[in-house]
Specification:
By secondary structure, the protein is mainly alpha-helical. It has eight helices and three strands, in the order βααββαααααα.
Length: about 210
């Protein structure tokens, strides 16, 4: 994501020397963007193994889980892993939640969204689709972390699907139609319908591959 960051001089605003502002300052001293992408992907696979193997069907997801997972994923790479961002962020002309509001918004997410839509055990397809759409949209709109929000949000959606006895979502259509995905996120400010449709497709396409 080509996000624009508000530069305030803190560690979150710093880039690794020699990276041409393509790699955030990190504990590993990695300045090559492709190398960092590989490192993050490898660590994400390890996180999936841990999370999907430990979260039960009746566990209510919490924002504390999200912070723990983010820290487990990127804690050996970035100093701010697991901490809510202190920089304002945007994508194009779309501005995510102001950094100063993130703690309050995440608290509201915990109390008003996650407590309602998780755990997902026993949910029908319609119920699961609604739950994932709402949680995903709200988490992306808040964008609580400096980096990795989209990938973590997909992990959350996968956990929810598995809790309900479904397969992990197939995100192929999201990746192939990014304009539709971002439009659904924007629409989520007042209407979860577009995201519900994208989630339903991802759920059904995953189920269609059950026997492959």
């Amino acid at each position: 994501m080509n996000d624009k960051y508000d530069t305030t001089g803190n560690v979150e605003a710093q880039f690794e020397p020699g990276s041409d502002d393509r790699v955030l300052a990190n504990k590993l001293g990695v300045s090559n963007a492709e190398e960092m992408d590989e490192i993050e992907m490898d660590l994400l696979k390890r996180l999936y193994d841990v999370v999907l193997g430990s979260v039960g069907a009746t566990h209510r997801l919490t924002t504390a889980d999200f912070r723990k997972w983010h820290r487990s994923w990127l804690g050996n790479v970035f100093a701010w892993a697991g901490q809510y961002r202190t920089l304002n962020m945007s994508k194009g002309d779309f501005i995510f939640a102001a950094s100063g509001q993130v703690p309050k918004l995440m608290d509201n997410l915990d109390k008003e969204v996650l407590s309602v839509h998780t755990p997902c055990a026993g949910m029908s397809e319609d119920q699961l689709t609604e739950a994932i759409a709402v949680v995903h949209v709200e988490l992306i709109l808040i964008h609580p972390f400096r980096e990795g929000n989209g990938r973590l949000s997909r992990l959350v959606a996968n956990v929810m699907a598995l809790q309900a006895g479904w397969r992990q979502l197939d995100y192929t259509s999201w990746d192939e139609n990014k304009a539709d995905y971002f439009a659904a996120i924007r629409a989520g400010l007042s209407d979860y319908g577009p995201m519900r449709r994208l989630v339903r497709r991802a759920v059904r396409e995953a189920e269609g591959k059950r026997d492959e």
